């Protein structure tokens, strides 16, 4: 079913004109292909100086590979339905869907060109005053309202079936939970940290905890998670935030979304240790990032608690002690998934600008080593923290105490994997 | 869609003749309705002195209530598909399906009349030499092969969708995890243990743990569980075992099936403290029951471990430490669900012969109190045991040390609920 592909610009423009409701009849429209992701086609259709819309189209294969890597087009239905569900609870935080066309495997949606890709903004050390709060609200409101705490028993199960998403889940299952923990050909490893990577491959305590996190990713149908909530799926500016691209959405562990965002803020924290620029500015920004993690978690957990207190539908789950226990479990889970994001973005297939923008390979190795070790600590110690502040204190304390361990590590990067395995988590 | 109902005996016989392949052409066939459950119709079609088959039919409502309690007929498709899947791994432990007819909402299957209902056998103190071992094998083989440990990622998710079973799950969600922990009108409580029941309703630590177990029942899609694996779903004799009625099947926590069976053996253990008969014989049978629990768990866990070692398909889950951790989690989970079965069968809607066969209300109250307290202990202490032997030792030790606490309790049954809440778990 590849014949849904637009034959040319005229077809794209005609499609936008008919399905968006955003253009005057007879308006002159232009189109540009703006997709910077790997999987889909993204077009911007606009009237010069006037309205604009985005058309996202999913073909039955991965865009940058071609027909050699087939991928279910059901992903675009899932994305459209997830966007519309998210809009039920956070209409100001997702692009508006004007139309979903199953035959074309295409969504016509709001153009969010006024917002910047969050990854680029973080690399540029932008301070976005509402970001952490708005992302906390996004997670609390979308995840609570698609969980058993809120949904009717029948509706929940019907939604689980609608959001079965095997092709996209398999990508995460492999890239997050398998590749980085073995010598996989898909991995992409800075040669200067190869011994760090090797150490992970024989780190049995870590692999055990990653297996547990993977098992939960596979089985724990807690809520409709976005499933790909990294900085590249967030657009933001000084006023607002838009979360896009929920094509990986499925019913999974709540902590996966929350942890992905924490992991991405911490990837930038690791990167800012070596990115170019003034030392004091970089250090101040790193502290801003940690504060953003705290604000994000505290907003998420505070709102989630409020929703549980006010709107838990199932009386057997409506207990103060259960609310407390669930939030403690969610913090541990989130830290664990944050750790897997830190590790897979450092030595796995898909790297991030937060680290890649460090041009010098030696300096990049230092930031990468910090990311790996931070990830390992979060995974192994995730159940030891009773608040996000305690987590951040642990990070600050470790970074201060080991101001130069990374430098030391560079000198010792040829140590055997075995000697590293026996060292403490961070 | 009630027109699938058989119009009379002739239609049932004709259906059996056409769809079972078990009868000679021209054979004289008789039919009897033998259903002793509450929900479906069950017919036995037989040639006097010759072959016989069972026809199970699901109408779109609960049989004993009528159209006032509608129930999805999809349950009979789920039962047929679950029976056939179970037969892939344990063909000797389930009735053979000759035919499933979606239009009639009916299954034609093997007659297991040579086997006795396990609940009746246990009440009669039958010693079934292969029972525990065969049930352990049933659980290990069906649950392992429908889990992420064995299944391909796509196949698992496709099966999760096929076995979404909201109507039947909702019954369990309410009867196991809600009714017994509040003053629900569906409950059926011996007035002599009313204060014991009241104590549960204000037992916050217990309600917290039951909420956690419910959350896992709702979310943990670990394997295709039978979902209703009590003694009444098992038929057995000295040689063999047949597990029937998987209409509650869905992807849920492995420990739910394992725990249901443990709970049912322990319900009989509680009942045998007061059932009529010779003291020494009853005590010896109770020890046989505990041994059966041990054999069941050890067979299950030993085979499950063997399958993990030999057939885990996902390399990231194929770790010795993960196997050990998973089995420890499964033991805790199973004990928790065993506890919920003990409690809900004692004060909830659906009672069991193991306790109901005790005619004297005072004596029944003693056995019921034991069942409740044992259930509470298993739920609260489920994570404290490192082997099934340790669990059984805990039970024996408690029963010996408190040889008369139940008698004492009878005298004190008017104590306030509050004073009981503060007493230790057993």
Automatic annotation (TrEMBL), chains A, B:
Keyword set includes Nucleotide-binding: yes
Keywords: ATP-binding, Kinase, Nucleotide-binding, Transferase
Signal peptide: none
InterPro entries registered for this protein in UniProt: Aminoglycoside_PTrfase, Kinase-like_dom_sf, Methylthioribose_kinase
Span of domain Aminoglycoside phosphotransferase: 73-270
UniProt entry tagged with the keyword Magnesium: no
Organism superkingdom: Bacteria
Enzyme category, top tier: transferase
GO molecular function list: S-methyl-5-thioribose kinase activity
Gene3D superfamilies: 3.90.1200.10, Phosphorylase Kinase, domain 1
EC number: 2.7.1.100
Record-linked PANTHER family: METHYLTHIORIBOSE KINASE
Family, as annotated: Belongs to the methylthioribose kinase family.
Self-association state and partner proteins as the record states: Homodimer.
Official protein name in the record: S-methyl-5-thioribose kinase
Protein's organism: Marinobacterium aestuariivivens
Lineage: Bacteria, Pseudomonadati, Pseudomonadota, Gammaproteobacteria, Oceanospirillales
Gene: mtnK
